[in-house]
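Hi P.,

Sorry for the delay on this. The queue was packed all week, but I finally got your sequence through. Input first:
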Amino acid sequence: MKSIFYILLLSCIFLNSCNTPSCAGVVFKNGVSLKDGKPYSGTCETYHPNRELKSIQTYSEGLDDGEWVFYFPNGKIQTKGQFNKGVRIGKWKYYAKNGKIWKVNTYNEVGEPFGEWETYDTINGNLSEVKNAKEIFN
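Then the structure:
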């Protein structure tokens, strides 16, 4: 019984098999995420080498859809936002490694940069700059 445990433990360590992402086999091709050659619908999780969660992504019919969250290796959120049928929408929040908000960018319903984009001081959390998205991209 102990030998089976050690074999499993060693395979986890050397083959990283205990940390297989749920989106193994999902490939991005021609703007669509596919699994087994078909548009993928579902949730994917990926992991950092230290086995901390790296990302949670959702897909619908091969397109980025729903909430996406990316994490730093320390487990804190790095980026959080929404997709709608492959289009980035709403507020996307970006964080520093210390967990403080760094930036907030907004996208309209067709994925265009929209409204005020905010930048924060990641040490004390104060708003440090606000720019209109039109100024940035025109």
